[in-house]
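Session log. Operator J.P. requested a structure for one protein chain; no other inputs attached. Running the standard single-chain path with token output.
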Amino acid sequence: MTSTPGEEAAARYPDLYQAATHGPATFRHLVQAHQLAASTDQVASTAGFWLIPAVAAKFSELHGGIEKEYYCGAVVGGCLLAKDRTVYSILNSPPPELVDAEIACKVIAKEAGYGLRGKHVVQQLEEATDHAYSGLTRVMVAADLVASGAPAEEIATAVAAARNEVKVVTARVEVLLQRQARLEYFQGVLAGIVPTFVLVILFGVAANAWWRSALVPSALVAAIAMSALGATISVIQRMSKGSLIIDHSASRWHRTLLGAFRPGVGAIFGSLAYFTLLAGILAGGSAVGTPASVAVFAVTGFAAGFSERYATDMLDSAAKLIRK
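Structure written below.
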């Protein structure tokens, strides 16, 4: 088979030619091909124009195609958004703030790809990666201005705009990641409610059968159950306010599991609240077991589950009582 002049020129660049004909092709190969095409050397330019579609085709085989791409003209750099929603970029140019901004965009794109997995979050992933690519494009435009020797005022404006764009992109993607992380955490909370209440009931039956002389089962169950409920309500309230912060870098399974433990943790705080309050009541010479006292235990348990700070304060009070 007769080779074309473009292929003959491309064969002079073995690494790129191998990627174009057999693969695998990376974004680095694409940037190099575009740099050759922009060269003033006729052979290099001919090779570059032959390599670009060939390398792009091999790259697309791995990533389902290319959604958007941008290549710098005055500096070695560019960015690309693939059909599989992965984001790539290269920038070998000062100033350092642009390099930092490029890295920040790549990091947030990686976090989006990790935290927004699954068919149910396709739209959110698309939005997040579009934001990341937009930030990278602004960074590349600024880098081109710096390398082309534009006026200092114009460069300063472009660099500042790129840095601001990256901040906005990071904030937008963070909102998407937190929204998904909260949803998965809350799904875990809902999954943990049923086994928690089953354990509370079993614990109440055991207390009534074996520890009735030392405990008040009705008050104990009320405190624990209401504390688990308080923990759940606390999550709902913080989600509605946007104050619930979840580590979106953790796996989905990890976030869901942590949420499932939340009612159980609340129940533990409820039991601690019960024994702390019981110690105070008995120390004061009061009676326990009336409907009113059960209500007090229930409210105290709810407060302990709803507010971890309140539970901590109760433990501090119990420690002081013990020291006395």
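Operator note: The longest helix spans residues 152-210.
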